[in-house]
UniProtKB/TrEMBL annotation:
Protein name: Transcription initiation factor TFIID subunit 5-like isoform X3
PROSITE patterns named in the record: WD_REPEATS_1 (PS00678), WD_REPEATS_2 (PS50082), WD_REPEATS_REGION (PS50294)
The entry's keywords: Repeat, WD repeat
Classification of source organism: Eukaryota, Viridiplantae, Streptophyta, Embryophyta, Tracheophyta
All copies of domain F-box, residue ranges: 24-56
Organism name: Cucurbita moschata (Winter crookneck squash)
WD repeats: 170-186, 195-232, 247-289
InterPro entries recorded: F-box-like_dom_sf, F-box_dom, WD40/YVTN_repeat-like_dom_sf, WD40_PAC1, WD40_repeat_CS, WD40_repeat_dom_sf, WD40_rpt
SUPFAM superfamilies xrefs: F-box domain, WD40 repeat-like
Amino acid sequence: MDQNQSLPTAITDLNEDSLAHCATFLNLHDIFNLATTCKYLRQAAYSESIWQRLFRERWQQLLPPLDSSVASGGARDAYLARLSALQQFKFEDPLVVDMLTEPEPYNLMLLDRDDVFVSRGSSIRMMKIPKIFGRSHSLTTLNDHNARITCMRLFPLTETSLFRSEGKKSGNFLVTSSSDHSIRLWWKGSCQKCFRGHSGPVSTLSDKLLGDGSSKVLASGGEDGTVRLWSLGSSGKRGKSALKATLHGHEKPIKLMSVAGHKTSLLVSIARDSKVRVWDVTASSTIRSSCCVGLTSLPGAPINIKCHESLLYAATSSSVVAVDLRTMQKVLTAAAYQPFLYSFEMIPSKSLICTGGRGRHILKLLRLVEIMSM
């Protein structure tokens, strides 16, 4: 070989900083492959900048201080330790922030971005989760109710003209029902509206607002067996003119309510006797029961209900059944439990249902497209 001819440049001729910069464009699998090639490339693949970037991208936060117990071995060790803990289903994030509360259990919980709402008895605790690890959290107590809180819901501000005077609307507002016969609307840590009309405890609220545009209404169900519709655009803090309609028909206290997915004017309610009624609120301009457009009865005690498109998924006692709201006929048994079903939730956007029974839980994927074509 001619001594004057230059040798081809190899990847190992690059310095470690250059290799580390190139490796920042690789995914985790490729970085592992790079580390197995040779000692020189492994040293580049173990660069702090690479693993700090991976840590930040996966968990949307910066690496803890290097003098902490989590990151004392460097960015790579911190990343792998956290990944290992999560994949082993330890259900404890190494960077979890503990928020100290009272030892008694809470009844209800809602998550809203960086806020956590929990209720116990007649009070609500609003806790703001710190955005940066190690920062103390804030705690606000809401005490306007006079009896046990029975239901909590979050609704987008963009779906109502309730707070129009505040200019640009963003975020959610909280709605709670209580055994003190009232419904309260909360925003920015204070009660903005109070609705009264039920002759007994308010047991549940609709999971969505009914209707379209800015004239949406809230539905509530009570121990008095009535469904009440409330206008969120009513004037006055006490909401004296908020009651839009009272719907009669149930013989027992109302347990659960859900808004249909294919038509936002349809409200589904189920009472403690597991009798289901479907209401069309566009026909509720007068206080009467003629807006009931569907009836059916389900076996067993109601656990939970969720609507997806034109289907109602109802969990009662030991099974989850799907009812077509257009025909009120059962079209599917989605899950079955023996001897008893304790809990049921649904994530329609992911076509998932989650059920809980004695000693086990099931996460089930539903082919909703195929079901809808039945």
